[in-house]
From TrEMBL:
SMART domains the UniProt entry points to: AAA
Keyword Signal: no
Organism per entry: Brachybacterium epidermidis
Gene Ontology terms for molecular function: ATP binding
Domain ABC transporter: 36-265
Region called Disordered, residue ranges: 1-32
Record protein name field: ABC transporter ATP-binding protein
């Protein structure tokens, strides 16, 4: 019996109530099995007065086949959280279960089922790409062929290049190759596309999507909000150790206002007629820059354009955008929220 089957048996036995239904990731209505469950997770660095609470009591539930994105401001506690989920660190409070097991204590059973792409890989740079991957796969219980994995991350033509001669983006792809070489059920991707050019990034997204379609459960951290918008089924935004928003992208941006920006002529600001009645609120500065914040983007945009035509006022640099993850994120980052507070929707 392999370590993997042993771990699965343990999962079924220990987590029968959580796991109700196993298997299918296809679009059936049945609820999917919980792969990661986190309750009241705390992680504190140091002791006593100088200690720092980096993760201040968070709850998470990540289901099989889901791509979950953990986002947050710098120092929000994402890596501190991820390290606990990955079984690399012990929590100082709360409980974490991965496949129904404690990822730290039962690491021997959990590790063969997960792939990790950390922020830095750390291979000796005089190894070639293929040597490094072969070295890594020799530690796995059921690795895929090195050539196949290198082709999957577009590194086949760099197989015999030393790591010292690879570009930053190519090293990142080697890190990804290591993470997926064992065909993990659960994949942690810590900022997987940092340093990749736009084309490589798009290919990495394709690969991540394909892994997800194959049923891999993926936990992703990223500073690229478009990456989360494109890939994530569910996401959570952390700020100062707490989760301040969570849900699908649509749920997270729901209720967040849209923005319309335009510049009015500056040569004769006094002549500009009063703005039309709008649903949202507007500000206008001395340079004629107008910003409307509104829950009714279409109505207010139409009102502004009709007004501009009727009054003969030229609008330059017109920009109208619905609420996005970026606008939610910027509000959180700039809010000065204290732990425990939730930003107003
Ligand atoms: N080993 C450590 N000892 C003490 N404090 C730490 C340690 N590691 C992290 N911290 C602190 O814990 C907080 C959370 O750090 P963490 O690295 O988890 O944040 P993050 O969300 O991953 O940030 P980033 O996006 O900048 O990588 C920060 O205030 C950081 O300074």
């Amino acid at each position: 019996m392999t370590a993997t089957t042993t771990a699965r048996d343990l999962t079924t036995a220990q987590d029968a109530t959580v796991h109700g239904i196993h298997g299918s990731t296809s679009g059936t209505a049945a609820p999917r099995e919980t792969v990661i469950r986190v309750e009241g997770l705390e992680r504190r660095y140091g002791r006593g007065r100088d200690s720092h609470l980096a993760v201040a009591g968070i709850d998470l539930e990540i289901r099989r086949g889901e791509l979950f994105a953990l986002l947050g401001t710098n120092g929000a506690g994402k890596t501190s959280t991820l390290e606990v989920l990955e079984g690399l660190a012990r929590p100082t409070g709360g409980t974490v279960s991965v496949f129904g097991l404690d990822p730290y204590r039962d690491r021997r059973h959990v590790r063969p089922r997960q792939g990790l792409m950390l922020q830095t890989g750390g291979f000796p740079t005089d190894l070639t790409t293929a040597e490094a991957l072969r070295m890594w796969t020799s530690t796995l219980s059921a690795p895929r062929p090195v050539s196949e994995v290198l082709a999957q991350v577009d590194l086949a033509d760099r197989a015999w290049t030393r790591i010292s001669a690879l570009s930053g983006g190519e090293v990142r792809r080697l890190d990804l190759a290591c993470a997926i070489a064992g065909e993990p059920e659960l994949l942690f991707l810590d900022e997987p596309t940092t340093g990749l050019d736009p084309e490589s990034r798009a290919r990495a997204w394709e690969l991540i999507r394909a892994l997800k379609e194959n049923g891999t459960t993926i936990v992703l951290t990223t500073h690229y909000l478009d990456e989360a918008e494109t890939l994530a089924d569910e996401l959570a935004i952390m700020h100062r150790g707490r989760i301040v928003r969570r849900g699908t992208v649509e749920e997270v941006v729901a209720g967040h206002p849209a923005t319309i920006r335009a510049t009015l002529p500056i040569d004769a600001p006094a002549d500009v007629p009063a703005l039309p009645a709008i649903h949202g609120s507007s500000t206008r500065d001395r340079k004629g820059r107008l910003e409307i914040t509104t829950d009714r983007l279409e109505d207010d945009l139409l009102a502004l354009l009709s007004w501009s035509r009727e009054q003969g006022v030229e609008l330059s640099g017109l920009d109208a955008r619905a609420a996005s993850l970026e606008s939610v994120f910027l509000e959180i980052a700039g809010s000065g929220l204290e732990p425990g507070e939730t930003p107003a929707a």
